[in-house]
Amino acid sequence: MEPTEQFNLAQVFDTLAGAVPDRECLVWRDRRLSYSQVAERSRRLAAYLHGQGLGVRKGRDRLAGHESGQDHVALALYNGNEYIESMLGGYRARVAPFNVNYRYVGEELRYLLNDARPRALILHASLAPTLAEVLPTLDTPPDVLLQVDDESGNDLLPGAVPYEEALAASSPDGAPVVPLPDDLYILYTGGTTGMPKGVLWRQHDIFIAAMGGRTIGTWEVVNSYRGIIERLEASFPLKLLLLPPLMHGAAQWSGFILLSQGATLIFPDNPRRVDPDDVWRTVEREKANTMSVVGDAVLRPLLMQLDKADYDLSSFFAVGNGGAPLTPAVRALALHRLPNLIISDSAGASETGAQMHAVSGDGGKVGAFLPGPGTVVVDEDLRAVLPPGHEGNGWLAQTGNVPLGYLGDAEKTARTFPVVDGVRYSIPGDRARHLADGQIELLGRDSVTVNSGGEKIFVEEVERAIAGHAAVADVVVTGRPSERWGQEVVAVVQLAEGAETTADSITQHASAFIARYKLPKAVVFVELVQRSPSGKADYRWAAERAVAG
To answer: Fewer CB within 10 Å, N- or C-terminus of the chain?
Structure first.
């Protein structure tokens, strides 16, 4: 159901800050900022950006779905209060912040920044040397640079202004503009299977789809700004330990969902990598109730740490997972280590928002979720919506609050957001099956499906089957060329600390869960499976390792 009011993300936060001004909003080490303090700091940033001439160039009603009429701000930042402030400050100034992967170097950064053409860049000092090499080579380098001091000791980039100095010298009243629901939220995709793409959302649509406008699971929609306050008054103020980097959508979404409910966001002492002891010490010290993770790669090491030290986890009762699947083996391990733990799984994509949901212990099929409003499966030819219990598989699709398009790419916008039977859908490329009981089984991204001997094999299904092996710490499955099969399935495996096993043992274990033709034809052992900082599999890297192996 569509709300009675349209939302802007900055105005949503202003509503929260007005209702609970003194409640802790962001906590990192000894830095503790209330909702009113974060609101003021983001207003000061908005005033600074507006004073530098950034803002709206063309109204939304005069633009196509793949076009932006706002100035863009690149956020090359690690987790911290500055990331949230920069997002909110950008929205208040009616400019569009976007995420920069802090692992990118050279050509990757050059491609991203040339594609987005930011007018401003906000960066952590430790990233300055890399950006100093790239910025002069851009088609149109940003003319506003704000640098956040950190422990690196790096000097300011030429022309950069210290972030804290810019805020201190700017008006606490903010920019003299009124943010609108049509203003953009921009999220660049991870680029693990291709080049990163800038997904353009109206802020109202992303708020409803993935940033707190509706309750995932019940899918109840907040109807108005007044409704946000009423929800606050009826809710328990949670404390969320945010582990994934905010440069990924999964972290932004989980963070803003909890903020919209008046929660406190906590960052571990070391926000640049997941240190299991640091994580549990932070939970213990801050009395955190829940944490956000991205798949096995994040959760499994945390669970193994519980065998190495004792922690007071009496406050902790929930894990929210999104962005990558949790395998049955890791889910069982979690419930063994923490028997009263609630594990909430959400599925979605940068182009759809949160689509589906599952909770531990609900008895559902592995890899299956209960769909939210507007989540369906459409047929292979994009002609019709498939009914529950249909034959074969189709495309996972979303209608309703979906993006406008991809920045600067009209052709890909038309392909990903087609009209099916008179309705516009977002179909980013996930294969799925609508089961007879109403659940949707997520099979995997079509771009990483292996076509072996004419059979389509979904790599996530094979990964789930292998991950339960006692000696396997992590696994990514990919395909490589084969004279006999066209492509053959290869498992790239990282063994658990001190473990030994063989390729035959791994395939024999997997054979209990998947058909013989899906089993890997080879297993390549590596010291460490490479993933993004959020925990998502890097399938390009895995394919290279499979060929080399």
So the answer is: N
Give yes or no for a contact between 430 and 396, defined as CB atoms under 8 angstroms apart: yes
Band (pLDDT 50/70/90 cuts) for residue 544 is very high
Q: Under a CB-based contact definition with an 8 Å cutoff, are residues 463 and 449 in contact? A: no
Model pLDDT for residues 116-134, shown as the tens digit of each residue: 999 999 999 999 999 999 9
As a whole number of Å, the CA-based R_g of the chain is 23
Phi and psi for 526 in degrees, rounded to 5? -130, 160
CA distances from 145 to 186, 249, 280, 330 (A): 19, 24, 36, 43
- The count of other CB atoms within 10 Å of the CB of residue 308 is 9
Q: Among all chains, which residue has been given the structure tokens 């894990």?
A: 319
Beta bridge partners of 73: 97, 120
Residue 334's identity, in one-letter code, is A
CA-based torsion, 473, 291, 211, 96: positive or negative: negative
Q: In whole angstroms, give the CA distance from residue 7 to residue 15.
A: 11
Backbone angles phi, psi at 238, to 5 degrees: -80, 160
CA distances, 7 to each of 69, 185, 374 (Å): 19, 12, 20
Q: What is the pLDDT of residue 402?
A: 98
For range 248-268, the mean pLDDT: 96
Q: How confident is the model at residue 360 (pLDDT cuts 50, 70, 90)?
A: confident
Q: Which of 514, 462, 465, 510 is nearest to 489 (CA)?
A: 462
DSSP codes of every residue in 35-86: HHHHHHHHHHHHHHHHHTT-SBSS-GGGS-TT---B-EEEEE--SSHHHHHH
* Averaged pLDDT, 265-275: 95
d(CA 465, CA 507): 9
Answer positive or negative: Cα dihedral of 34, 40, 45, 49.
positive
In degrees rounded to 5, what are phi and psi of residue 320?
A: -105, 120
Residue 92's pLDDT band, with cuts at 50, 70 and 90, is very high
Domains of the chain: 19-210 (3.40.50.980), 267-445 (3.40.50.12780), 449-548 (3.30.300.30)
Q: What is the full DSSP assignment across 74-86?
A: EEE--SSHHHHHH
Cβ contact 386:379 at 8 Å: yes
Residues 6+ apart with CB under 8 A from 186: 68, 72, 96, 97, 98, 116, 198, 199, 200, 201, 407
Least Cα distance to 140 among 97, 162, 110 occurs for 110
Q: How far apart are CA 27 and CA 264, in angstroms?
A: 7
User: What was the pLDDT predicted at 449?
Assistant: 83
- 48-88 pLDDT, tens digit each: 999 999 999 999 999 999 999 999 999 999 999 999 999 99
Per-residue pLDDT of 442-456, as tens digits, reads: 888 777 888 887 777
